TrEMBL record, chains A, B:
Chain segments carrying region Disordered: 302-324
Keywords: DNA-binding, Transcription, Transcription regulation
UniProt name for this protein: LysR family transcriptional regulator (Chromosome initiation inhibitor)
MF GO annotations: DNA binding; DNA-binding transcription factor activity
Top-level taxonomic group: Bacteria
SUPFAM superfamilies tied to this protein: Periplasmic binding protein-like II, Winged helix' DNA-binding domain
């Protein structure tokens, strides 16, 4: 067997973001933490931690951390079957999961709540662009991820969840100011547009898809799902918003859809470590159930049922990978 | 004068997150970008960019980038006075500003909208913990910040905005399940609690302040302001939420305050580069006006007016610095 006190020191340094904090968690001195990590590095024959602020794992270090987190999860399940085994400490297993901001802000949380209710387990959610959540699974930082990546990460299972539909919206005052003469590509490029962050290419892809034009509009950056919606509501700019969030302000007339029916779908997948851990299976079941309720089915190679008729949702539009 | 084409190449690499993307923006080849940065490094006699993915500036590189962003802002203002001066390109100045997530999610955006409406300028918002936004100002990544740091960053002006009040809340079902026998320190440490991320010590500080106890409760991590509120609404855990966000669900009975009147105030400050730029002055005015409306006045050394009587707000509580 591997030397778990050494591995636990490594994982604690990465998880806690520092040698001192890891020492507090482990109940040893910071110099003991350093010694354990040096001992592990000598055995492995490679550097495991870049001593930056905060410390970051090398590739080898990340693999070892991923291993520790998996063992910890399995131990957590064992402890719930055999309570006498559980040592001191909280003992409640926590599942690290990467989610894109728009999923967290629009459909993911009811699944998380049912999972937690059923299992008593905790979730440590990590936010990232859906184009990058799979990398966090690959590095072992998380054990499951909502991702735009359909191909299974090594050691993981993947399943398609469905499409998160986006609609291009603005406030009525914004529409009156910038689109009084119609929503044309030229008008869209004159009006200020919102971008989640530099990686967010959704607005540009939508303009390309529906108007065959490059996006050159002046751009605000607002890196928060709800802040993004609020920024459209107060008239800062037009933008694509997830339909589950935009539906109510659209129905109330506080937002207007710029080109009715011209939505854009982002297909999401669920990937999780192939561990046979009950916690992961329960979370997978709840996530799949919530996705079936909240996301749009995706037409694949074979015929699939049509999206459920829902008057608040516009007609489906071909799928396009996106970076938010 | 400094060599601005070289400086612009450096700033573009950092802003765009890569040599290729910087080349596209500058309209030159990636190798021209590399040459310019090497030339600048030779003149400065120091490395300016760590060639990682994405590239990150060294301390010297960050200072040069900060200088470029300031010059660009001043040029943007000049161009609006002397349109003939403006070269090709969008020409709309964008102001990089760091904001903590809870401010963005609760009170900041109306000020941003009025600023943008009045000036036509763009905002590039960067999210960080209010304990860390001042560091982004110090590094020159942003020109203004909402921060918990009262002392002026070198080259900046600082002013106190007021206190963002937090209240400890849970859903009624959660309260019935975990606090049927009263909200005691023991019950609070048995019930699952939410944490924004590892840096978020607000719940622990609240428990220490009102119950003189350490927080040992099982902890979910949900790193999104609105997601944090939604997680309490669906019953994932109890947590401290900004009063401007929690007020409506509290009034509607979808959240309950765990210990009525036991809020916690986080004092926020506004710091901005001392530039004499009109854009910064306009934004400062709008931010101060919105803060006066939405935040609580802070009792200082001298007598200050009482908070405006507002039935939806509980009695003021002594100030405590916090990390969210």
């Amino acid at each position: 067997m591997l030397d778990y006190p050494l591995l636990a020191a490594l994982a604690a340094v990465i998880r806690e973001g520092g040698f001192e904090r890891a020492a507090v968690v482990l109940g040893v001195t910071p110099s003991a933490v350093s010694q354990r990590i040096r001992a592990l590095e000598e055995r492995v024959g490679a550097a495991l931690v870049v001593r930056s602020q905060p410390p970051v794992p090398t590739e080898a270090g990340a693999r070892l951390c991923a291993h520790v987190e998996k063992v910890r999860l399995l131990e957590g399940e064992l402890a719930s079957d055999l309570p006498a085994l559980a040592g001191p400490g909280p003992g409640v297993p926590a599942l690290p999961v990467a989610v894109n901001a728009d999923s967290l802000g629009s459909w993911f949380l009811p699944a998380a709540a049912r999972f937690s209710e059923a299992t008593g387990a905790l979730l440590h959610l990590v936010l990232d662009d859906e184009a990058h959540t799979a990398a966090r699974l690959r590095s072992g930082e998380v054990l499951a991820a909502v991702t735009a990546e359909p191909a299974a990460v090594p050691g993981c299972r993947t399943r398609r969840l469905g499409a998160l539909r986006y609609v291009a919206c603005a406030s009525p005052a914004f529409q009156a100011r910038y689109f009084a003469e119609g929503v044309t590509a030229a008008a869209l490029n004159r009006a200020p547009v919102l971008q989640f962050d530099r990686k967010d290419g959704l607005q540009a892809r939508w303009l390309r898809q529906h108007f065959d034009q490059a996006l050159t509009a002046p751009t605000h950056q607002v890196p928060s799902t709800q802040g993004f919606l609020d920024a459209s509501l107060v008239g800062l700019g037009w933008a694509l918003h997830p339909l589950p969030l935009a539906a109510v302000p659209l129905a109330e007339g506080r937002l207007v859809e710029l080109v009715p029916g011209a939505g854009m779908d982002v297909v999401l997948h669920w990937q999780h470590a192939r561990l046979g851990a009950r916690l992961l299976e329960t979370l997978t079941r709840e996530v799949a159930a919530e996705a079936a309720r909240s996301l749009f089915p995706v037409a694949g190679l074979s015929a699939l049922p049509e999206p459920a008729p829902d008057p608040s949702r516009s007609a489906p539009v071909p799928t396009d990978p996106a970076s938010r």
